Amino acid sequence: MKKFYTVPVLAVSALALAACGGAAAEGEAAASADADPITAAEVTAAQQAWGEGIVTIGKTFTDEGDFRKAAQDHIAKHYAYGDDATVLFKPTLASVDQYRETADEALSYFVGTEGTEDGGFAIAPYTAVRWEPNGTVIDEDGDMAVAMGNYYFTGTDGNETKVEYSFAYEKDDAGDLKIVLHHSSLPFSPE
Questions:
Q1: What is the mean pLDDT of residues 75-99?
Q2: Which of 59, 90, 125, 157 is 20 to 30 A from 32 in CA distance terms?
Q3: Can you give 139-177 as a three-state secondary structure string?
Q4: Burial state string for 23-37 with b = 16 or more CB within 10 A and e = fewer than 16
Q5: Whole-structure pTM value
């Protein structure tokens, strides 16, 4: 489902663009988007690929392969870390080190680091990730997309864990969507 908003989108875009490198990045993103604006189909494909990457990391771990490399490849493919870009990443299972501002911090979350709260989210493992989007907002220039909804992680026992997500995407120089904001949390439980 694709929704367009005017005032909220401009506010979200301005904040996210400012956080992701300022005026220079805004000019580069706008130039890139003018040539090839982000589409809702690209967002859906990026989400699907992200979920498949999480499954691959867990399978690689289970098969006793190089799961760290699989996670590093996943982060490089899907997140905009590097080149002075800012990625706003707040993982679900993080309370002490709430924000993952570097690729190394994201890697710790995905595969675990001894002596930290990171147990290795992606090596659980999961057999599937199912997306249930609430909506996607693409700014009027097509240079940023923000998506929100629920995603469900299927464990090896067949049970699903529901998690709430918000992702923001921009295109890199190659035209690939990269995550510049990732926030996820477990649903509120009043008990």
A1: 86
A2: 90
A3: CCCCCCEEEEEEEEEEECCCCEEEEEEEEEEEECCCCCE
A4: eebbebbeebbeeeb
A5: 0.79
Helices 67-78, 103-111: axis angle to 10 degrees equals 130
Taking only the tens place, the pLDDT of each residue in 88-124 is 988 888 877 787 888 898 998 899 988 888 888 899 9
- Sorting pLDDT into bands at 50, 70 and 90, what band is 9? very low
The position carrying tokens 């067949």 is 158
Helix (H) / strand (E) containing 118: none
Residue 141's contacts (CB-CB under 8 Å, 6 or more residues apart) are: 30, 33, 34, 37
Which tokens sit at 59? 């399978």
Q: Which residue has the tokens 């870390």?
A: 81
Handedness of CA 95, 99, 104, 109 (dihedral sign): positive
What's the CA gap between 180 and 55, in Å, rounded? 21
Question: Are the C-beta atoms of residues 144 and 138 closer than 8 Å to each other?
Answer: yes
Compute the residue count for the chain.
191
Do 179 and 88 meet the contact criterion of CB atoms below 8 Å apart? no
Tell me the residue type at 170: E
